[in-house]
Write a structure and sequence with these properties.
Length: 382
Protein backbone atom coordinates (compact mmCIF):
# COMPACT_ATOMS: atom_id res chain seq x y z
CA UNK A 1 0.00 0.00 0.00
CA UNK A 2 1.42 3.37 -1.01
CA UNK A 3 0.95 6.49 1.06
CA UNK A 4 2.18 8.96 -1.58
CA UNK A 5 -1.13 10.77 -1.21
CA UNK A 6 -0.43 11.31 2.50
CA UNK A 7 2.68 13.52 2.68
CA UNK A 8 3.70 15.08 6.00
CA UNK A 9 0.96 17.60 6.71
CA UNK A 10 1.79 21.29 6.38
CA UNK A 11 1.74 23.47 9.49
CA UNK A 12 -1.41 25.48 8.79
CA UNK A 13 -4.20 26.90 10.87
CA UNK A 14 -6.76 24.25 9.99
CA UNK A 15 -6.31 20.69 11.14
CA UNK A 16 -4.32 18.80 13.76
CA UNK A 17 -0.70 17.76 13.25
CA UNK A 18 0.53 14.45 14.65
CA UNK A 19 3.53 15.95 16.47
CA UNK A 20 4.70 19.41 17.48
CA UNK A 21 7.98 20.24 19.26
CA UNK A 22 7.70 21.58 22.81
CA UNK A 23 10.13 24.41 23.55
CA UNK A 24 9.77 26.58 26.66
CA UNK A 25 9.05 30.27 25.97
CA UNK A 26 11.89 31.08 28.39
CA UNK A 27 14.45 29.43 26.11
CA UNK A 28 14.74 32.18 23.45
CA UNK A 29 15.99 34.64 26.07
CA UNK A 30 18.09 32.09 27.95
CA UNK A 31 19.76 30.74 24.81
CA UNK A 32 20.52 34.27 23.65
CA UNK A 33 22.33 34.87 26.94
CA UNK A 34 24.10 31.52 26.62
CA UNK A 35 25.29 32.40 23.10
CA UNK A 36 26.90 35.55 24.46
CA UNK A 37 28.77 33.64 27.17
CA UNK A 38 31.70 31.29 27.54
CA UNK A 39 30.13 27.83 27.71
CA UNK A 40 28.40 26.55 24.58
CA UNK A 41 29.57 22.94 24.62
CA UNK A 42 29.42 20.79 27.76
CA UNK A 43 29.54 23.19 30.71
CA UNK A 44 27.74 24.13 33.94
CA UNK A 45 24.25 23.97 32.41
CA UNK A 46 24.74 20.27 31.67
CA UNK A 47 25.49 19.67 35.37
CA UNK A 48 22.43 21.71 36.29
CA UNK A 49 20.17 19.79 33.92
CA UNK A 50 21.48 16.47 35.25
CA UNK A 51 20.82 17.53 38.85
CA UNK A 52 17.31 18.72 38.10
CA UNK A 53 16.56 15.52 36.16
CA UNK A 54 17.97 13.38 38.97
CA UNK A 55 15.72 15.03 41.58
CA UNK A 56 12.64 14.56 39.47
CA UNK A 57 13.10 11.14 37.91
CA UNK A 58 16.14 9.20 39.06
CA UNK A 59 16.04 9.13 42.87
CA UNK A 60 19.57 8.15 43.95
CA UNK A 61 20.70 6.80 40.59
CA UNK A 62 23.53 8.41 38.61
CA UNK A 63 22.45 10.63 35.75
CA UNK A 64 24.43 11.27 32.54
CA UNK A 65 23.27 13.75 29.89
CA UNK A 66 24.10 12.78 26.31
CA UNK A 67 23.74 13.98 22.74
CA UNK A 68 20.75 11.72 22.02
CA UNK A 69 18.64 8.82 23.21
CA UNK A 70 20.63 6.62 20.82
CA UNK A 71 23.91 7.73 22.45
CA UNK A 72 22.42 6.83 25.85
CA UNK A 73 21.44 3.37 24.61
CA UNK A 74 24.88 2.66 23.17
CA UNK A 75 26.49 3.90 26.39
CA UNK A 76 24.20 1.63 28.44
CA UNK A 77 25.14 -1.41 26.33
CA UNK A 78 28.85 -0.62 26.81
CA UNK A 79 28.46 -0.09 30.56
CA UNK A 80 26.55 -3.37 30.79
CA UNK A 81 29.83 -4.89 29.62
CA UNK A 82 28.26 -6.49 26.56
CA UNK A 83 30.75 -8.05 24.20
CA UNK A 84 30.67 -9.27 20.60
CA UNK A 85 28.57 -12.44 20.33
CA UNK A 86 26.67 -11.89 23.61
CA UNK A 87 22.94 -12.50 23.38
CA UNK A 88 20.58 -9.62 24.04
CA UNK A 89 16.79 -9.90 24.12
CA UNK A 90 14.84 -6.95 22.76
CA UNK A 91 11.43 -6.10 21.35
CA UNK A 92 10.60 -6.55 17.67
CA UNK A 93 8.48 -3.37 17.76
CA UNK A 94 10.36 -0.16 18.45
CA UNK A 95 12.22 2.72 16.90
CA UNK A 96 15.30 1.28 15.16
CA UNK A 97 17.39 3.39 17.56
CA UNK A 98 16.81 0.82 20.32
CA UNK A 99 18.43 -1.97 18.35
CA UNK A 100 20.92 -0.39 15.94
CA UNK A 101 23.61 0.23 18.62
CA UNK A 102 23.57 -3.55 19.23
CA UNK A 103 24.87 -3.90 15.67
CA UNK A 104 27.75 -1.44 16.38
CA UNK A 105 28.88 -3.97 19.01
CA UNK A 106 28.29 -7.25 17.16
CA UNK A 107 25.70 -8.46 19.68
CA UNK A 108 23.47 -11.40 18.87
CA UNK A 109 19.93 -10.02 18.85
CA UNK A 110 17.08 -12.21 20.06
CA UNK A 111 13.82 -10.53 19.14
CA UNK A 112 10.82 -11.04 21.42
CA UNK A 113 7.20 -10.70 20.32
CA UNK A 114 4.92 -8.01 21.76
CA UNK A 115 1.83 -8.15 23.92
CA UNK A 116 -1.33 -7.58 21.84
CA UNK A 117 -2.99 -5.33 24.41
CA UNK A 118 -0.06 -3.01 25.21
CA UNK A 119 2.39 -3.46 22.28
CA UNK A 120 5.15 -3.75 24.92
CA UNK A 121 7.60 -6.65 25.01
CA UNK A 122 5.80 -9.90 25.84
CA UNK A 123 7.20 -11.40 29.03
CA UNK A 124 6.25 -14.95 27.99
CA UNK A 125 8.21 -14.49 24.77
CA UNK A 126 11.21 -13.12 26.73
CA UNK A 127 11.26 -16.15 29.02
CA UNK A 128 11.42 -18.52 26.04
CA UNK A 129 14.48 -16.72 24.62
CA UNK A 130 16.70 -16.87 27.71
CA UNK A 131 19.82 -19.02 27.35
CA UNK A 132 23.13 -19.26 29.22
CA UNK A 133 24.51 -16.67 26.79
CA UNK A 134 21.82 -14.03 27.50
CA UNK A 135 23.55 -11.00 28.97
CA UNK A 136 20.86 -8.31 28.74
CA UNK A 137 17.18 -7.61 28.19
CA UNK A 138 16.01 -4.33 26.69
CA UNK A 139 12.42 -3.25 27.14
CA UNK A 140 10.71 -0.21 25.59
CA UNK A 141 7.80 1.49 27.35
CA UNK A 142 5.84 1.91 24.13
CA UNK A 143 4.03 5.23 23.86
CA UNK A 144 4.81 5.88 27.54
CA UNK A 145 3.06 2.82 28.99
CA UNK A 146 5.38 1.04 31.45
CA UNK A 147 6.26 -2.59 30.69
CA UNK A 148 5.57 -5.37 33.20
CA UNK A 149 8.46 -4.27 35.40
CA UNK A 150 7.84 -6.62 38.34
CA UNK A 151 8.14 -9.60 36.00
CA UNK A 152 11.11 -8.24 34.07
CA UNK A 153 12.99 -7.30 37.26
CA UNK A 154 12.30 -10.79 38.61
CA UNK A 155 13.66 -12.44 35.44
CA UNK A 156 16.71 -10.18 35.48
CA UNK A 157 17.51 -10.95 39.13
CA UNK A 158 16.86 -14.69 38.90
CA UNK A 159 19.06 -15.15 35.83
CA UNK A 160 21.64 -12.46 36.61
CA UNK A 161 20.82 -10.61 33.38
CA UNK A 162 21.16 -6.82 33.04
CA UNK A 163 17.87 -5.01 32.49
CA UNK A 164 17.90 -1.89 30.32
CA UNK A 165 14.80 0.27 29.88
CA UNK A 166 14.51 2.33 26.72
CA UNK A 167 12.33 5.05 28.21
CA UNK A 168 12.47 7.42 25.23
CA UNK A 169 8.64 7.55 25.28
CA UNK A 170 8.16 7.36 29.01
CA UNK A 171 9.35 10.55 30.67
CA UNK A 172 7.16 11.06 33.73
CA UNK A 173 5.68 7.55 33.62
CA UNK A 174 5.57 5.61 36.88
CA UNK A 175 5.50 2.00 37.95
CA UNK A 176 4.35 1.08 41.46
CA UNK A 177 4.56 4.78 42.32
CA UNK A 178 8.24 4.97 41.29
CA UNK A 179 9.38 7.10 38.36
CA UNK A 180 10.69 5.33 35.29
CA UNK A 181 14.42 6.03 35.51
CA UNK A 182 14.71 4.80 39.11
CA UNK A 183 13.94 1.12 38.71
CA UNK A 184 16.46 -0.99 36.85
CA UNK A 185 20.16 -1.18 35.93
CA UNK A 186 19.95 1.39 33.15
CA UNK A 187 17.23 3.66 31.72
CA UNK A 188 17.57 5.88 28.67
CA UNK A 189 15.61 8.98 27.64
CA UNK A 190 15.39 11.15 24.53
CA UNK A 191 14.84 14.88 23.99
CA UNK A 192 14.69 14.62 20.21
CA UNK A 193 12.33 17.05 18.43
CA UNK A 194 8.99 15.36 19.04
CA UNK A 195 9.40 13.95 22.53
CA UNK A 196 7.63 15.37 25.64
CA UNK A 197 10.02 18.31 25.33
CA UNK A 198 13.01 18.83 23.12
CA UNK A 199 16.58 20.07 23.47
CA UNK A 200 16.99 20.02 19.65
CA UNK A 201 18.55 16.62 20.12
CA UNK A 202 19.60 15.18 23.44
CA UNK A 203 19.38 12.23 25.76
CA UNK A 204 19.77 11.05 29.34
CA UNK A 205 21.01 7.85 30.93
CA UNK A 206 20.28 6.79 34.50
CA UNK A 207 22.50 4.18 36.13
CA UNK A 208 21.76 2.14 39.25
CA UNK A 209 25.38 1.20 40.03
CA UNK A 210 27.12 4.40 41.16
CA UNK A 211 30.52 2.81 40.58
CA UNK A 212 29.87 3.10 36.84
CA UNK A 213 29.37 6.87 36.90
CA UNK A 214 32.99 7.88 36.28
CA UNK A 215 33.36 5.33 33.50
CA UNK A 216 30.13 6.57 31.91
CA UNK A 217 31.46 10.12 31.95
CA UNK A 218 34.75 9.05 30.39
CA UNK A 219 33.13 7.03 27.63
CA UNK A 220 30.81 9.94 26.94
CA UNK A 221 33.90 12.01 26.13
CA UNK A 222 36.49 10.06 24.08
CA UNK A 223 37.55 7.99 27.14
CA UNK A 224 39.19 11.06 28.67
CA UNK A 225 38.74 12.06 32.32
CA UNK A 226 37.52 15.62 31.74
CA UNK A 227 37.98 16.82 35.30
CA UNK A 228 41.63 15.80 35.34
CA UNK A 229 42.17 17.24 31.89
CA UNK A 230 40.65 20.56 32.92
CA UNK A 231 43.16 20.65 35.79
CA UNK A 232 45.85 20.53 33.13
CA UNK A 233 47.05 17.06 34.08
CA UNK A 234 48.09 15.12 31.02
CA UNK A 235 49.29 12.02 32.81
CA UNK A 236 45.96 10.27 32.75
CA UNK A 237 45.92 7.48 30.24
CA UNK A 238 43.08 6.87 27.77
CA UNK A 239 42.52 3.15 28.17
CA UNK A 240 38.95 2.74 26.92
CA UNK A 241 37.51 3.66 23.55
CA UNK A 242 35.19 6.58 24.14
CA UNK A 243 32.76 8.50 21.97
CA UNK A 244 31.61 12.09 21.61
CA UNK A 245 28.26 11.60 23.27
CA UNK A 246 28.04 14.63 25.54
CA UNK A 247 25.21 17.17 25.72
CA UNK A 248 25.89 20.83 24.94
CA UNK A 249 25.10 23.72 27.28
CA UNK A 250 22.74 25.13 24.63
CA UNK A 251 20.69 21.91 24.72
CA UNK A 252 20.87 21.76 28.54
CA UNK A 253 19.52 25.32 28.74
CA UNK A 254 16.44 24.19 26.78
CA UNK A 255 16.25 21.08 28.97
CA UNK A 256 16.28 23.06 32.25
CA UNK A 257 13.64 25.49 31.01
CA UNK A 258 11.27 22.74 29.88
CA UNK A 259 11.87 20.60 32.95
CA UNK A 260 10.51 23.49 35.08
CA UNK A 261 7.31 23.19 33.04
CA UNK A 262 7.22 19.41 32.87
CA UNK A 263 4.36 18.76 35.32
CA UNK A 264 2.11 20.95 33.18
CA UNK A 265 3.32 19.31 29.94
CA UNK A 266 2.61 15.82 31.29
CA UNK A 267 -0.77 16.75 32.78
CA UNK A 268 -1.94 18.12 29.45
CA UNK A 269 -0.77 15.05 27.52
CA UNK A 270 -2.48 12.76 30.04
CA UNK A 271 -5.68 14.77 29.68
CA UNK A 272 -5.65 14.29 25.90
CA UNK A 273 -4.78 10.60 26.36
CA UNK A 274 -7.72 10.11 28.75
CA UNK A 275 -10.09 11.98 26.45
CA UNK A 276 -9.36 9.48 23.65
CA UNK A 277 -9.67 6.57 26.07
CA UNK A 278 -13.10 7.78 27.09
CA UNK A 279 -14.19 8.41 23.46
CA UNK A 280 -13.41 4.80 22.48
CA UNK A 281 -14.51 3.07 25.68
CA UNK A 282 -17.85 1.90 24.23
CA UNK A 283 -16.70 1.11 20.70
CA UNK A 284 -15.65 -2.52 20.20
CA UNK A 285 -14.24 -1.62 16.74
CA UNK A 286 -11.62 0.72 18.20
CA UNK A 287 -9.28 -0.91 20.70
CA UNK A 288 -7.11 1.56 22.61
CA UNK A 289 -3.59 0.31 23.30
CA UNK A 290 -3.55 0.60 27.08
CA UNK A 291 -3.42 -1.29 30.34
CA UNK A 292 -5.80 -1.12 33.30
CA UNK A 293 -3.02 -2.32 35.62
CA UNK A 294 -3.06 0.24 38.44
CA UNK A 295 0.69 -0.12 38.98
CA UNK A 296 1.26 1.63 35.66
CA UNK A 297 0.99 5.39 35.24
CA UNK A 298 1.12 6.31 31.56
CA UNK A 299 3.62 8.89 30.28
CA UNK A 300 1.16 9.76 27.47
CA UNK A 301 3.62 10.25 24.65
CA UNK A 302 1.52 8.37 22.07
CA UNK A 303 -2.09 7.31 21.85
CA UNK A 304 -2.40 4.24 19.63
CA UNK A 305 -5.52 2.45 18.43
CA UNK A 306 -6.07 -0.94 16.86
CA UNK A 307 -8.72 -1.10 14.11
CA UNK A 308 -9.73 -3.37 11.20
CA UNK A 309 -9.46 -0.67 8.50
CA UNK A 310 -6.27 1.21 9.41
CA UNK A 311 -5.41 2.44 5.88
CA UNK A 312 -8.90 3.63 5.11
CA UNK A 313 -9.23 5.32 8.50
CA UNK A 314 -5.90 7.11 8.06
CA UNK A 315 -7.09 8.49 4.70
CA UNK A 316 -10.51 9.55 6.02
CA UNK A 317 -8.85 11.37 8.92
CA UNK A 318 -6.48 13.11 6.52
CA UNK A 319 -9.41 14.23 4.38
CA UNK A 320 -10.52 15.94 7.59
CA UNK A 321 -7.05 17.47 8.10
CA UNK A 322 -6.08 15.12 10.93
CA UNK A 323 -2.54 13.74 10.65
CA UNK A 324 -1.93 10.20 11.89
CA UNK A 325 0.79 7.62 11.27
CA UNK A 326 2.19 4.32 12.47
CA UNK A 327 5.40 6.05 13.67
CA UNK A 328 7.39 2.87 14.47
CA UNK A 329 7.58 -0.33 12.42
CA UNK A 330 8.51 -3.89 13.28
CA UNK A 331 12.29 -4.13 13.08
CA UNK A 332 12.40 -7.45 11.21
CA UNK A 333 11.18 -5.59 8.09
CA UNK A 334 14.64 -3.97 7.86
CA UNK A 335 17.43 -5.80 6.02
CA UNK A 336 20.01 -5.04 8.72
CA UNK A 337 18.08 -7.22 11.21
CA UNK A 338 17.07 -10.02 8.82
CA UNK A 339 19.80 -12.44 9.90
CA UNK A 340 18.40 -12.46 13.45
CA UNK A 341 14.85 -13.40 12.49
CA UNK A 342 15.17 -16.20 9.91
CA UNK A 343 12.64 -18.90 10.78
CA UNK A 344 11.33 -16.96 13.78
CA UNK A 345 7.64 -16.26 14.35
CA UNK A 346 6.01 -13.17 15.87
CA UNK A 347 2.27 -13.93 15.81
CA UNK A 348 1.18 -10.91 17.88
CA UNK A 349 3.25 -8.53 15.77
CA UNK A 350 1.83 -10.18 12.61
CA UNK A 351 -1.68 -9.60 13.90
CA UNK A 352 -1.11 -5.93 14.78
CA UNK A 353 1.12 -4.92 11.89
CA UNK A 354 -1.61 -3.49 9.66
CA UNK A 355 -4.03 -2.53 12.40
CA UNK A 356 -2.37 0.07 14.62
CA UNK A 357 -2.48 3.82 14.14
CA UNK A 358 -1.15 6.69 16.27
CA UNK A 359 -3.38 9.73 16.96
CA UNK A 360 -2.12 13.26 17.78
CA UNK A 361 -1.09 13.97 21.41
CA UNK A 362 0.91 17.14 22.11
CA UNK A 363 0.63 20.53 23.78
CA UNK A 364 -1.24 22.12 20.86
CA UNK A 365 -3.99 19.48 20.81
CA UNK A 366 -6.99 20.67 22.84
CA UNK A 367 -9.56 18.50 24.59
CA UNK A 368 -12.12 19.59 21.99
CA UNK A 369 -9.69 18.57 19.19
CA UNK A 370 -9.35 15.14 20.84
CA UNK A 371 -13.13 14.80 21.16
CA UNK A 372 -13.55 15.78 17.50
CA UNK A 373 -10.86 13.30 16.38
CA UNK A 374 -12.49 10.67 18.62
CA UNK A 375 -15.86 11.24 16.95
CA UNK A 376 -14.30 10.94 13.47
CA UNK A 377 -12.50 7.72 14.42
CA UNK A 378 -15.73 6.27 15.86
CA UNK A 379 -17.52 7.21 12.65
CA UNK A 380 -14.99 5.74 10.21
CA UNK A 381 -13.57 2.73 12.08
CA UNK A 382 -14.84 -0.65 10.90
C1 LIG B 1 11.91 3.99 21.51
C2 LIG B 1 12.98 4.94 21.11
N1 LIG B 1 14.25 4.71 21.49
C3 LIG B 1 15.24 5.53 21.16
C4 LIG B 1 15.02 6.64 20.38
C5 LIG B 1 16.20 7.45 19.96
O1 LIG B 1 16.26 8.69 20.53
P1 LIG B 1 17.11 9.84 19.80
O2 LIG B 1 16.37 10.23 18.57
O3 LIG B 1 17.15 10.92 20.84
O4 LIG B 1 18.44 9.29 19.50
C6 LIG B 1 13.71 6.93 19.95
C7 LIG B 1 13.35 8.08 19.12
O5 LIG B 1 13.88 8.95 18.69
C8 LIG B 1 12.67 6.05 20.33
O6 LIG B 1 11.42 6.27 19.92
Amino acid sequence: MSFKDLPIMADKKKGVLLFYPYVSKKSSKNIKEKLAGRWLGQGPMVDKFENKFKKKFANKFSVIATGSGTDSLHLAYILANLKKGDEIITTIFTCTATNIPMLYMGLKIKFADIDVKTMNIDVKSVKKLITKKTKAIVCVHYGGLPCDMDELLKISKKNNITLIEDAAHALGAKYNGKTIGSLSDFSTFSFQAIKHFTTGDGGMLTIKNKKLEDKAKRIRWFGIDRKKKQQGIWKNDVHEIGYKYQMTDIAATMGCDSLDEFDRILKHRQKIYNTYLEEFSDNSKVLSIHDDDKKKEHGAWLFTINVNNKDELQRKLRQNSIETNQVHFRNDRYSIFKKFVRGKKFPNMDYLENRYLVLPVHHKVTVSDAKYIGRLVNKFAK
